[in-house]
Each structure stands twice: as C-alpha cells, then as structure tokens.
Amino acid sequence: MADLYLPGGRLADRIELTGLTATGYHGVFDEERRDGQEFTVDVILHTSTSRAGASDELAQTINYADAADHVIEIVTGEPVDLIETLAERIADRMLGTGALAVDVTVHKPSAPIPHAFTDVTVTIRRLGELLRPPKPAADVVVGIGSNLDDPVTQVEVGAGKLARVLEYEQMSRTRVTAAEVAPGMPSQPNYVNAVMVGKTTLSPLALLAELQRIEDEQGRIREEVWGPRTLDLDLISYKVADREVLSDNPDLTLPHPRAHMRSFVMEPWAEVDPWGKLRGKRIR
Questions:
Q1: Beta 138-146 vs 232-240: how paired, if at all?
Q2: What is the reported pTM?
Q3: Annotated active-site residue in 108, 135, 239, 281
Q4: Domains in the chain, CATH or no CATH each
Q5: Which of 76, 85, 91, 185 could potentially form a cystine with 126 if both were Cys, beta carbons 3.0 to 4.6 Å apart?
Q6: 108 labelled catalytic
C-alpha cells in the first residue's frame, strides 16, 4: 500500500511485522475447519515514534512483541469463514495498540484452489479514531488566545477563520487574562481569550491541522513552549455521539490536559455551553 501521510503532509512512522505464521482453522470447507492450515500475516502499524526516539523508553511506543502475540492469538483462535474477516479482526486489535492506522495482509498459501498458484492474500487498511472522519459530526471545543500584535484583532480574525471550518459554531465573549509563564521565563503581556464550540466532520488530526494552518496564517511562531503568540488555537474537547475521544498521541492529547485548571477556558466554555462536560463532569 502507499505511504500514509498525516494531515499537514507529514509522513507517518511505521512499525512493520512480516511473516507471522501460525496454524488456523479458517475457511468455508469442512476439511479446512477440521485439519487446519498455515496462515501468514504482515502488519504495518502507522504511528509516531518521536516520543520513544527521544526517551528510549518502551512504554512510549507500540510493543511489537505484544502486537505479534495478538496476531497469533487471533489466527489460532475462533475460526471464521473468510480471510477478509480474519484481517478485520486483526486490524481492530492492532488499532487498540495505539496505532494511528494499520495495514494488514493475510496470506493463505494452501487455499483450496484446483489450480497451480503461489499464494492468496487479502490486504486492508483501517484508520484509527484520530484519522477517521466522525459519524455523526463531532462536537468540539476550541480555545482561542492571543497576546501579540493587537490581540483583540488577532482573536477576531482567527475566530472568523475558525467559524468557516466548524459548523453551527458559537463563540463566547472575549476576556483579558494574565499570561501563564513557565518558571524562570520573563513576563508576558496579558492574553485575550475566548472559546468557540461547534461541530465538525473532520477527524481530530485533520481538525488540528486546520487549527495550525490558521495559526500560521496569523503569524504564529513556535520557538518556545509557553512563549507569547499571535494566535493560539487549542483543541480542548472532541466528542462523537456524546462520547469523549481520548488520546495521548504525541501530536494531540485529548481532552486538553490542562483545560480543567484554566478559568480562561472553563468560564467562557460554560458561557456558550452550560451543559458541557469534560471527562464526564459538568463544567460548571
């Protein structure tokens, strides 16, 4: 299959497991269920390895030994008629490892075909929740802030662009709040903050790419964490059918890990969505 590109054009990293082989009892014929045959599986896990590469910690990546165990468990487990079904079950399990997307190829070299052949394969690609467009449209909360280059105008212009990305959007009033400054860092100008709620048919990562595009158009420079900025658009919460999407992916943490501690997020959110919830709790 072709390489998988993340929203924004960045090539996803890959962890590949090839040639995983075990005896399974899958097939539509009685002898296949009775005698079994060898199946071989290739798996590509599309992910981000940056966090693991920086920390050198196994906990920060997908454990390929565990992934291999899952594949073998499914191949040797409950029989199914079709290798298409087998591939779907493997893909579902692999997405549970935290992969952004997976490619699964199931080989059935001993398939009951009355002709000379080398192999029969089924290959599928399945997207994880961070890359899959939501059905129905997702409810999202976006924090808006600026403390550089006329913050009031930056927030107004940024909100206008964001309103063209979201559907059925509603924005809070703006308010001025003191900047959060990391220890040892110089003071910063106050922020102008607001919150917009709305709906989207974009996946979480696709929406993040749109937020970053708008920030870039407004002159956002990402030189330091906690630094001053012309425009900051934070994806606070992303819910599908009232179920909050959770993510600790290096590119996107959901819900926003510090939102509940920030009055400049919670108060304007409550203003436009008084029945809103964060991690299952009412926001006011």
A1: antiparallel
A2: 0.90
A3: 108
A4: 5-127 (3.30.1130.10), 138-282 (3.30.70.560)
A5: 91
A6: yes
